[in-house]
Amino acid sequence: MTNSSKKPKKSTRKPVGITTHVDLTDTNGEGLWLESGFTAFVWAFAIATAGTLFWMSEVIFKDAWPAISKFGLEFLWNPKWDIGELQFGALPFIYGTVVSSAIAIIIAIPLGLSVAIVTSENFLPSWVRSPLGFMVELISAIPSVIVGLWGIFVLIPFLMPLQQSLFNNFSWFPLFSSEPLGPGMLPAGILLSIMILPTVAAISRDVLLAVPVDLRSASMSLGATRWETIFKLLLPAASSGIIGATILALGRALGETMAVTMVIGNSIQINQSILAPGYSIPALLASQFREAQEELHIGSLMYLALILFAITLLVNAVAVLLVQLIGVKGAKN
Amino acid sequence: MTQARNSNSIVDAEINNPLSLSRNLFSRGMTVIAFSLTGLALLPLFAILYKILSEGLTHLSWKVLVSLPAPVGVEDQPNGFANAILGTALMVGIGTLFSVPIGVMTGIFLSEFGRENKAIANTIRFITVILSSVPSIVVGVFAYALIVVTTKSFSGLAGGFALGIIMLPVVALTTEQALKLVPASYRLASAGLGGGRFQTMFRIIIPSALPTITTGILLAASRAAGETAPLIVTALSSQFWPPLVEKLGEIVQSPVGAETIAKIQEIPQTLLTPTPSMSVLIYSYASSPYKEQNELAWTAASVLLGMVLLTSLASRAVTRKRLQNR
User: Fold this and answer.
1) For A42, which of B37, B113, B138 is closest by C-beta distance?
2) What is the Cα–Cα distance from B42 to B49, expressed in whole angstroms?
C-alpha cells in the first residue's frame, strides 16, 4: 500500500548525512518496542473490562456462599425473612420485583409504542418530531433518586384518590383487595413505567425506521390507510425488535433501585393486592446492607444480589442478542 | 357508503368513495389515541421538571451551596449541602481516574484492533454492553464485598470504585464510536508516512476524536453523579466535610515542614471513611419527617438535575454536530 510509484528522478545527488543502507525489516529500536508494548496494553485493558463482569460474579458468589450452603435452592420459595431468627427466604422480594416490573411493562408498552409511532411516522413535521423523541429520551437522564423524590411528594398524593376509588369499587377483585396506604406496588410500577419508557420508545422507533420505505409505499398504494399499514405491516415487521426493546426495558425495571425503594412501601408481607406495599430485591439490598452484621444476613443479601444479577444478565443478554440480530438483518436489506 | 350509486360502474363508486366509514373512523381514532398516549408519556417529564424548578429554585441560594447541613431544629445556623457537592465530585473523580484509562483503551481495542480479531472484539463488545446493563445496586454490592468488607469501613474509595465500574462500559463504548468517526483516510495517510500503530493512534486518531471522547466521558460522569444505589451500600453519608477535603485544607494552612509531610501521608486513610454525596442526601432527606430537610432535598435535586441535564444536553449537541459533519 505504501509502495511509491514515483521513480527516482534526475536528482542523483545523495543527501548528506543519510545512510543508504536502511533495513526495513529491522526489528530493533524503540519503535517496535513501543508498538508491541502498546498492543499488549490495549489487549490487557480490553480483557480487564470484559473480566470485570466475571470478577463481579465470582466475588458476589463467594460472599453469598454461607447462605447458599445453608439454605440451598429452598431460599427461592421460602417466604420468611427474619433477621432475629436468622431465617432467610427470597420469595417476598422476588414476588415484589416481578409484580412491580410487570405493572411497569404493561403500562410502558402502549405508551412507548405510541411515542415510537408518532416520532417515526410522518404525522408531524420533522422539526417537531425529533425534539419530541429527544424529550422522551431526556427522562432517562433524570437520576432515579430524583424520580423517587417526585414519586413521594407528587405521584403518591396524586394517585391516592385513584387507589382509594379502586379499593372502594373493586375490592372484590383480588388485585385491589386492600386498603391503600399511599406507597405500594401500583405507585412503584407506575414510576418504573416512566423510567423504562425511553428504552421502549427509542429502540422501537429505531426498529420502525429500519423497515424499508418500499414496503410502506407498496402497502399504501394498494389502498391501505396509514394505520392499516402500521398494524398489518410495520408492527409485524418490527415485532422482534419491539420484543427486544421490551425485554431490555424489563431488564432495567428489574434492577431499578432508588425510585422503587422510595415508593414501594418496603413491607415483607406478600399481598396479592397491588394497592398494598411490597418489597423488591434491589430495594431490600439498598435498605438492609448498611445495617447487616451477621455473616448469614450479609450472605443472604449477597445471595439475593446474585439472583438479581443472574436474572438481569439473562434478560439483557437475550435482549441485546435479539436487537443485534435485527441490526444484522436490517443491514443486509 | 360503499354501495354503488351508479350500478353501471362499481369502479367509479370506489373512486368517489375511497374509504368506508369504519376504516376512516379507525384511522382517525388511532391517530387520536396515539397522540394522547404520547402526551401522557411526556407528562411526567414536565411534571418532574416543573416541580423541581418551583420547589428547588425558591430555596436555592449561595448560602445553601457553601454551608454544611445544620442539625435538625437549629434555626440560626445556615443550612446547606456543600459537603455533599464536594463528596459527589470526589467520588466521581475517583471513578473517572479509574474508568477512563481502562475504558479508552478498551474503546481503542474495539475500534482499531477489532478488525483483525472480529470474534474476540465482538465478544468483548457484547460483554461490555451487558456490563453496562448490570443493575447499579449489584455493582454497589460488588464494591461492598470487595472494598468495604476488606477495609472494614464504608468509604469514599468504595463509592468511587463502584461509580468507576458504572462509568467503564459507557466510556469504552462511546470511545469506540468516537474512533469510528475518524475517517479511514487519516489512518492510511499516517501509515503511508510510516507511522506505526502507536504513532497513528496517539498523534492522529485520538487528537481528532478527542472532543467526542471527552463528551462521552462527561456523559458517563454525569450519569455516575446521579447514581445513588451503589453509594448507599458503599459510601454511606456524613454530615461533615469529606475527610480528604478537610485534610487538604489542613495541609494548605499548616506551615511547610515535617508536619505537612506527615499530613500528606495521611491522605490515603481519608479515602477510607464514609463520604457524603448529593444523591444519598436527596434520598435520606426525601423520607425525613422534617420539612426543612424535605425542602433541602428539592434544592439538592434541582442542583443535581441541573448538572446532569446540562452535561447531557451539551454532549448530545456536540455529538450530533460531529455526526452531521461527516
Assistant:
1) B113
2) 11
